[in-house]
């Protein structure tokens, strides 16, 4: 049976697929519980497993009659230490520890750092964070072969633990050889979004876009402090942004992350690009059937800020309660959006329209929806750009997006307020009005007497030509004819 009704909320839910959720049965449960999009994490698993997951999602999409969004998340360059003689060692607190280019197994005094590019850039006073920041080293002296450090926070270090370098732009490409293989795989599999990890510069985004060859949409993950200095440029070159709070929280002090989250969300919203808030949103639900109050507030704050989507990571990928995690996230979002104060809070950002007809009409549609009892906004689009413009205004009514492109319908699964439907193209104004009304009734966007706004471009089928805004009213006769066809 096709899933027709809108979710009843505007923010989207992105659920990560993993061992706990990749079965066809669990994927359908997550979708019915409220997941709008699924993240395939290329850091884990092989291509055969990922291909099977993507095939299961597409099969569910056909079964349920709704476009389903797939995001493939590239691993990015991971810096790691080498190995130890006994598999592990203890770095003494306040003691000295050396990272060098000697491939011999390490001990409590030294270990190999198999990344020669780091030896030429690190300077006295800069930090090295190991194992997600559990160990903190401060550089005393660095040359071409050794980096002598003082351990500000010591502890146990073991084989191949990750290294973060927060105080320098690391001269490594955002795309490793593995990422290039994974990106090619994602394109072949028809992924709707590809997420680029550890973006530091706009050039990283440009390189990934070149390799994508015009296919799919590119999401830049903001998880390096270096990216903040060039945030607006990165947003401009990307199709969407992810606030990746995991590594961002490792490389920054914890208290620095919340204001940066708001700044990134605000920057993406100003440019009308979808923005996802990710990592540890309902972390305790990996093991517990209920979240903490702090986690509920965290999700709620992201919704109040107007994020396009909120993401579940290990909660759905490997947790014991994947369906419950999606259900609770859906309930939090719906409750926030039902708050009478939500509209005022979500509009704390002023989004100035560009001097184009399409932007002016998108802004006008939101204004009309505030002035009249409008039930919804119907957007006819080929590329999705008109829907993105309308979503930037955060209108107080839902948006029904009608597009002849299945790819566009899927891509919009991460766009605030968009209920996308893939349908045949229109050829005339009369056909536009008739189809808009019919689809509004079918998808629960109105009843007899409801007013709706229709946005489209004339001549029809011309990309980027949005130049028409029309207010329509659903009549009782139309509702009767629709009910007769459904009987």
From TrEMBL:
Q: Which reaction does it catalyse?
A: pyruvate + ATP = phosphoenolpyruvate + ADP + H(+)
Q: Which InterPro entries match?
A: Pyr_Knase, Pyrv/PenolPyrv_kinase-like_dom, Pyrv_kinase-like_dom_sf, Pyrv_Knase-like_insert_dom_sf, Pyrv_Knase_brl, Pyrv_Knase_C, Pyrv_Knase_C_sf, Pyrv_Knase_insert_dom_sf
Transmembrane intervals: none
**Keyword Heme carried by entry:** no
Q: Where is the Pyruvate kinase C-terminal domain?
A: 359-472
Q: Which organism is it from?
A: Novosphingobium cyanobacteriorum
Might you give the EC number(s) for this enzyme?
2.7.1.40
What residues does the Pyruvate kinase barrel domain cover?
Answer: 9-326
Q: Which gene encodes it?
A: pyk
Keywords tagged on the record: ATP-binding, Glycolysis, Kinase, Magnesium, Metal-binding, Nucleotide-binding, Pyruvate, Transferase
Q: Could you say which enzyme class this protein belongs to?
A: transferase
Name the Gene Ontology molecular function terms of this record. Answer: kinase activity; pyruvate kinase activity
Name the protein family: Belongs to the pyruvate kinase family.
* Pathway(s) of this molecule: Carbohydrate degradation; glycolysis; pyruvate from D-glyceraldehyde 3-phosphate: step 5/5
Q: What is this protein called?
A: Pyruvate kinase
